[in-house]
Each structure stands twice: as C-alpha cells, then as structure tokens.
Design goal:
The chain is an alpha/beta fold. It is built from seven helices and twelve strands. It has two domains: about 140 residues, 3-Layer(aba) Sandwich (Rossmann fold); about 110 residues, 2-Layer Sandwich (Dihydrodipicolinate Reductase, domain 2), CATH 3.30.360.10.
Length: about 250
C-alpha cells in the first residue's frame, strides 16, 4: 500500500487528487498539507515540516503555487520522500537543484501536464517539428491560473526546438507596432507562445505548424480536472521505483 500525502489539498486540483487516492485500492491517504484548509475527513497539517514530524508517507503529491512548491519539495526530498509535482513554474535549473537535495533513492517526478492527451499532443508536435519551418503555441486556461505561459506550453516549445534543432523563423517582436508590444507573444525556445486567461476554460492548447501552402494544427482540450487523475496515479505508482529527476509523464507511459 502506497502511503500518500497531498500538498495543496484544499485546492481544486488537490481535492481531486484526494478523491482519486481514496478511490485507489493500492494507495492510502495519510494526510493533507494546506495552511488555509481544514476538514474532519482526514488529518491536515499547516506545513510539510509539521506533517513529516507527525507521521510518515512514501509519496508527496504537490499541486500548490509556483512561489511555495520549491520549498515543499526540498523539505520532502531531504526527508527521503518521493515527490510527484504538478505545480508549474519551476525552471529546469530549479528542478535539478531540488533533486540534488534528495536523500537515499528519493525521486522528484515533475510533469507539466498529467493528461495522456496532452502528452500525446507534445509527442505529435515532436514528430511534426522537423518538417515545418514555423510553429506557434496558443494556450488557454482559467482566469485564476498563476503562471503564464503554462508549463505545458513551455515544455512543448522546448520539445519543438529540440526536435528541429533551430529557432523559429516566424516574425518576432520586431513586427509589433508601438503601443501594442506583446502582440507576438513570448518567445520560448524560439517558439512564439500566446496565453489566454478567461473564465470558461480549464486547459486548452493549440500547436500550429506552418509551411508554404499548408498548416497543421494539433489541439488538446481538457474540460474537467478528473482528466488529470489517471496520470497523477500513474506517477504515484511509478515514482517509487525511480530516483533522481524525471520530467514528463511520457517516461511512465508504455
């Protein structure tokens, strides 16, 4: 039985993880960690440090905020606890630094997106990238998302750049007119990325490839946070057999 703690248990993603863990036959929810949430259904601690002093668990799942996730993960890894992280906003350098804090065989598993469809979208983009001179990303999320661009968009841009070995030739910021700076989006790994934040969205991303006389658009939509849960559970089940730093759910998908 995998013993699980959920950091950010009071949030929308955190509460969905709680439900998914409780519904799994091979997992047991030990506690939640959230300074702004209480419940009578399970133990909730104000911090990771308090949780580690009061109980023990095998895996910490973190869906919190970009400004607190690093300290949460560092504390857990230093205690030898495997981490499954879905909070975006962590740079590769930060992930590598955090993984170096792990004791024993503890593993830091980070996924910018836990939906199988988003992982496949990125793999399809990787396959298409060498054949198109231009690529752009449009990502749409709910208005309360705390980072822009999304972790999925950033990850996709880097995958595209690695697959084709060069930066985009699409017009960049030099084409922006005065007073409308930002119209071309942010250049991430040479790929223009445009972020939409609005009520009505959960998570949508389009990857648009272009060449002479044609375009190819790869789209993934997530309408419910339940779509993330199979990937989260796969991460929880898989992280215990790994060590060091692993980025991307595709590493666990057969």
């Amino acid at each position: 039985m995998i013993q699980v703690a959920v950091c950010g248990c009071g949030g929308r993603m955190g509460s969905a993880v709680i439900d998914a863990v409780n519904a799994s036959d091979d997992m047991q929810l030990v506690c939640g960690v959230d300074p702004n949430f209480t419940t009578e259904s399970y133990s909730v601690y104000q911090s990771i440090d308090q949780a580690l002093k009061a109980t023990s668990f095998d895996v910490l799942v973190d869906f919190t905020r970009p400004d607190v996730v690093a300290s949460n993960v560092k504390c857990a890894l230093s205690a030898g606890v495997d981490c499954v992280v879905g909070t975006t906003g962590l740079a590769q350098e930060t992930l590598e630094s955090l993984s170096s804090c792990a004791t024993g065989d503890a593993c830091l598993f980070y996924a910018p997106n836990f939906t199988t469809g988003a992982v496949l979208m990125m793999q399809f983009a990787k396959a298409a990238a060498p054949y198109f001179p231009e690529a752009e990303i449009i990502e749409c999320h709910h208005a309360n998302k705390r980072d822009a661009p999304s972790g999925t968009a950033v990850r996709t841009a880097h995958i595209i750049q690695d697959a084709r070995g060069r930066d985009s030739k699409a017009p960049g910021k030099e084409t922006e007119i005065e007073g409308a700076e930002g119209a071309r989006g942010a250049l991430v790994a040479g790929v223009p990325v445009h972020s939409v934040r609005s009520m009505g969205f959960v998570a949508t991303q389009q990857v648009i490839f272009g060449s002479m006389g044609q375009t190819l658009t790869i789209t993934h939509d997530s309408w419910d946070r339940e779509s993330y849960m199979p990937g989260v559970l796969l991460g929880i089940r898989s992280v215990g057999s790994q060590h060091g730093l692993i980025v991307g759910l595709e590493n666990f998908m057969e």
